[in-house]
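Fold sample X.
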Amino acid sequence: MPTLRLLTILLAGAALTGCAGEPAPLPPAPVAAVEPTPDPGASPYGLFLAGHAARDAGSLGAAAAYLGRAAAAPGEPPYVRVEAFDAALRAGDVSGAAALAPPPDDPDLAARRLGVLVRGVEAMATGDNKGAYLLLSGPDVGFPDKSIAQLLAPFAAAGAGDTPHALAHQDMEGDGVAQFVGDLDQAQLDERFGKTADADAAFKALLAGGDESGLVTLSYGAFLERKGRAGDAQKLYRDRLARDADNQPIADALARAVKHGRPPPLPGVRQGASEAMLIPAAGLISQKQDGLGLDYLRLALRLDPGNSEAWILVGDLLTGPDPDSARIAYAQVLPASDRYVTARSKLAWNLQNAGDHDEALKVARETVAAEPSNREAAAALADLLRANDQFTESAAVLTRLIDAAGGRADWRLYYLRATAYDESGEADKTQADLTAALKLDPDEPELLNFQAYFWIDRGEHLQEALAMVQRAVAANPQSGEMIDSLGWAYYRLGDYKNAVENLEQAINLEPAIPEVNDHLGDAYWRVGRKTEAQFQWRRVLSLNPEDKLRAKAEAKLASPLGPDAAAPPQGAIAQ
């Protein structure tokens, strides 16, 4: 079956925004959604249990409220305070977490170390940079928080006017990710203290070591622009685009430099410290260490409540377990941010998945109205319209995008429009868009699978479709939907044995997709496994299928003809 996913272009790296000066102590950033205030008469033990229940249910704000009340009760054991500390930090209440940080004699070593980091960040946020530096560079910070503390300490020193410690080289003791971030930060701190030649040399050394993400190019280019070297910045951007033509942030930077527009200002001390935490946090999340990654993101937002990338990452982490808090996070990204459209698109999908379809479409339409030329906004609206069965409008939105591209439309736009045409039964238009997309990218597995399934389901070009879907599966051997297409191709060709083998593999990978269960049921029937076939069709009915598929499954269950009661196989060859 064809896979349908939101195909949007994500920016590489966080934007370099900010001001050179340091504002007054920061107010707290918005926290997680909070449940009603705990019952004043509740016992500490009851509050503790309620906090655990809320945490297990993903309600971070409620967990912090209950556990915080429990920890405030006289005589409670130290572990209650540790759990309240952890809950407050996860919910985004860094000030509250700093107040609850475990004391030096607490037996929980990991919590003590994290507590020192939290107190250091809170000191920076409230303007006590000297105190922050002493905490962050002191002996009480250890694994796994030491690298983060090392990244933050130079910024605290810079805020305190301590030039030697701000510019001292940081040895991250084998932590390659932290070393990269630290070296990049060092170049920006050199610039801050007027060490222009040292900053230039540091950027060049980083470029020589490779710049897969493009972040060094963006940072160095912004430095060159700030120093009045627009020509050098343009060459830097063009050299990168020559080997990375699709890097939109660098293309935007080049356009700005060519126009001699205002370059991104040097990030402020707190903003630089906040940015320093993003890459390590994202790395932890990629390693499935979501809890510690969320802790670091909350600390980053305490230092810079305007850090759009951090808000988006927080929203992504919380969309599943705490969707209300995820919506709060996405809503913090303001229209002035170059990540605004991304945040709004994610907010719209959060609402869609929560069942608030009208509000989701409203958000998506408002985003397109605010950013009418933004392809990501339009693609998100089109995909949401398709998800809400508004296929004609979805196709119309995509047509405007394709026409605006003037012959340079991306294959993804044709792909998305083809899905809309397919759902609305416009086969000729579907095929035309698939043909156009395949001309642009003939090896894209998503396209190969979609085209193959389109033919297979119609009983057309079955041998060619089989070859196509085999290529798609070879590229994505763990895609249950693509393996389903392969099994369905064998079914249409009458090779029911191979159909069963592949469809059983597909069902193991995608057990909750109604169409995959339906296909396996049909294949079981053809090889004489009729009881198992009926089980799969009943399974289809339990998965909330679309009306058409529900009717087919019911017809097959009610008739001794099985699949032939609903729709005989098209194009099948004799066994």
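Fold sample Y, listed below.
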Amino acid sequence: MHFIKELFHYNPIILHVHSLLLASIFFALSISFFCFDKKRFSVLLLFVGSLMLNYFLIHLDPFLNSWDERFHCLVAKHMSINPFNPMLYTQPLLPFDYTNWAGNHIWLHKQPLFLWQMALSIKLFGSSEIAARLPSAIMSSLLAPIVFRMGKLLINARVGFIAALLSVSNNFILEHVAGKQELEHNDLAFMFYVIISFWAWIEYEKTNKQLWLIIAGFFSGASILIKWLPGLLVFSGFGFYHAILKRDLICSSTLSKLTKAVIATLATFLPWQAYILLKYPNEARAEYALNGRHFMEVLQGHGGSKWFYIHELGKEYSMLYPVILLGMLMILLRFRKNFLMLSLLVSTIIIYIFYSAAATKMDSFVMPVAPLCFLFAGVAIDNILTLVSNYKLIAMPLLPIILTWLYLQNLSVDKIAGNHWRNPETYWGQFAQNTADNTTTYKRLNELVPPNSVIAYCNQFEEIDCMFYSGITAYSYLDEKSFKILKTSERKIAVFNNHLPEFVIRDTSVFIIPCDYKINSTSGREN
């Protein structure tokens, strides 16, 4: 009986398994309806199933994940009150370095659009990790109809459905929704807006309606408002399509429409740049310089060989990456006249070349083209199914079998369990459980400490969690000089009993927080 209780306490997969089962039922129904040619209803079910799956994921960790999620959530919480003043510390009581994004005051380390989304969710639903993750859950689910539509326009509905199914069930993408994967909500939002810009461009090419190209430009600008200039990726596809394939880029009509799209892009992202340069010039220039250094320098240990992203294909796509490569080869050999697919392939190659050339490397940098890669996989699988279509006894059951296998393989429940099970017998499992227990304490801090307190001696970087849940200014380790500065701030110093130095123990004015504080030796690795 004790083992069962422990299993439920530490294993969130078991605790929330009803949501996972319900999501799988919707996915199964979606696959079934698609096999019976009920395409629209199948995509609707796919969207609902994805919502349920993401609901499951955002509840797995009842704490802020290290490294980046905690910072994004705290800044978003502050932006829910003042959306145009992004702050980490709203009331910095100690001197700080404005170039240190992990401990400064005005926080411009990331462009603001995804933070505004999180801030709106926090404003509506309260300061919780669930509310902060909700925008990512919605964006991930919306990939279902968007990617389906792209595949249908480019090849056929079957390619669209396969790509949509893979996009909303991919383990690597889903761990961003859960806040577990590095750069989580930032990279998820970036991928979402990049893909919308490609979808709008494809609609333009199919309908010749200029509004779609302007929409593509707008969402390209929105992408820049998340992760800077790689958000212009859609224009690489447009340029290749019209300059190399159709050879009409310099025509007045094409240039006129392109100019309007570029104006829409500039009008979307330039106002914020002007605003921060005028209001926070030092911080803004420091962050622009840091963006450039990512390309030339290995920052914070995130380096790798020129083959880094090729080696990571297995992590991002599991056993599906050979299918993606096969689809790319088929596009080159069998679909050479499908200029739009060729252009998407070129854009994908460009993003891989660009980030491979950059000195700083991280898995998620190439994630914006993941749905495009799933379209390539859809091409390969669709061609395989076409080849066996004449063999009715094989072809009829093959489609649901393949789609179900794709869902299960792509989701990788075993990986989710490994990433989120707070098994106290492993170092990282115990680390996660300690963080969860401390989060419960942070939520009660206003009851535990005197009014007008400042908190000190949190675990490293958990001062961010402390401020998110309690709203009280907090710090981790303090040297004697910093401690004396806090003493002059007219704040009551409240500390966790966490390897306290002798000068703190001797000070009888310090308030020891009465709680069982779990000590973590580190709060994760830097990004």
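Sample Y note: The beta strands are 453-456, 492-495, 511-512.
Also: The first helix runs from residue 2 to 10.
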